[in-house]
Amino acid sequence: MLKARTVREGSVGLLALAGLLIFGGSILWLRNLKFGQEGYSFVVTFPDVNGIQEGGPVNFRGFRVGQISRIQPGVNGVDVTLDINAGLLIPRAVQIQANSSGLIGETSVDITPLETVPPEIKRQANFTPSSGDCNPQQFICAQEKLQGAAGPQLIPTLARLSELYGNEEFFNNVNGAAKNTAIAAQQITDLSEDISSLAGSVEGEIKSFSAAANSVSATAQEATQLVDNVNQIVGENRNSLNETLGSVNRTSNQLNDLIANTNLLVRDTNGEVNQLLSSLRGTLGEVNAKLDSVDTQRLTQNLEALTTDAAQASANLRRLSETLNEPANLTVLQQTLDSARATFENAEKITADLDELTGDPAFRRNLRDLVNGLSNLVSSTEQLEQQIVTAQQLQLTVKTLQKHIESLEAAKASSQAATSLEKR
């Protein structure tokens, strides 16, 4: 019980202490008290403070740099003490106004510089406004007294506007101006529509005129070029034209003579032509009789038999060439040739070595027989190579026979066509 009571009393004490701390902090916050910062202050006299209150903001170039610490009304104005942050130098040429934002907005003191501080003076300003070496000609120093101005006030402005708008003459002027503005706007709209339609029609006319001008210009250029070409051709070929005209005249005379001679020749050779036609008719009869006597059916059968035999021979040759030209057979033959060459070379080396090591005639004879046998093997491989070449030649022969067969088939077709014509 005692421990619980002690805890409750301690909690009450801590709560009371926390409340006092919060209350004191709130007071300090409301008074905008900042620890560890020393500022400076100066007094501004306003004819009308426009609702300024202590603790109100002080703005320099729109940024808050201090607050209002004291307001002292007087006979000729209101003295307002401004506390400014330490280290901020404010130029002497400034405008200080008490401005209110909106109907219920907070009233603030706005400081607006009217001139720019030269760079050389800014570099020399190595002092603070509260120090003794502050330059009052260029900057505002601590504890100075300046003159302020009341900013624009909303309520008086609205009252003047209401009074002005209540004037009947002014109202009639404004109403007439509004009506004239509406009429002018409608006329401007109509004028813009007319201008748009006129611009469209003018643009179409300009396009058509431009196209016509371009076509006329192109036609004129072509006509000029044509005239130049004609003049050039006439100038270059004047002599040739004269010679050509002379040749044409001579040719026409020669043609007249030729026509006369031709008429005489036709009269003379008319009988000979008739005799020639009669002899041609007899010759055609003899040819037809000989064609009838030819046994075209036997010739056709012989051609068919020859075609069949040639096709079978070409098929056999094709199978032989395909067998010899198979990649596996060619590879085996090539490997055999390579092995035979390698064996022959090794045998020659061994023979030379053995001839040096031993002088036995029988051994040399056996080796000679072995070499001869290998030579025969090489010759057989050479024969195989010749057979391969022969197979390739046979393949070419097959192609040639195929061409002959095709020509025979064409001859057969032509003979059949001749037979059908004779039957008709």
Percent of sequence in beta strands? 5-15%
How many beta strands in the DSSP annotation?
Answer: 8
Rg of Cα set:
66 Å
Give the rounded overall mean pLDDT: 71
Output the helix-strand order. HEEEEEEHEEHHHHHH
For the biggest sheet, the summary is: 8 strands, mixed
Uncertain ranges: none
Distance from first to last alpha carbon: 148 Å
Structural domain count:
4
Sum up the overall morphology in one term. elongated
The helix content is 55-70%
Q: What's the quaternary structure here?
A: single chain
- Strand order of the biggest β-sheet: 7-1-4-3-2-6-5-8
Describe the structure.
The protein has 4 domains: about 120 residues, no CATH class; about 70 residues; about 55 residues; about 130 residues. The chain is about 70% helix and about 10% strand. A hairpin with a 4-residue loop joins strand 3 and strand 4. The protein has an 8-stranded mixed β-sheet with strand order 7-1-4-3-2-6-5-8, with no helix packed on it. It has about 425 residues and is an alpha/beta fold. The termini are far apart. The chain contains 8 helices and 8 strands; from the N terminus they run αββββββαββαααααα.
Topology:
Elements: H1 2-30, E1 40-46, E2 57-60, E3 63-73, E4 78-84, E5 94-100, E6 107-113, H2 119-124, E7 145-147, E8 149-150, H3 154-165, H4 168-236, H5 238-293, H6 296-324, H7 327-357, H8 361-423
Parallel strand pairs: 1-7, 2-6, 5-8
Antiparallel strand pairs: 1-4, 2-3, 3-4, 5-6
Helix pairs in contact: 4-5, 6-8, 7-8
Write a short abstract of this structure.
By secondary structure, the protein is an alpha/beta fold. It has helices at residues 2-30, 119-124, 154-165, 168-236, 238-293, 296-324, 327-357, 361-423, and strands at residues 40-46, 57-60, 63-73, 78-84, 94-100, 107-113, 145-147, 149-150.
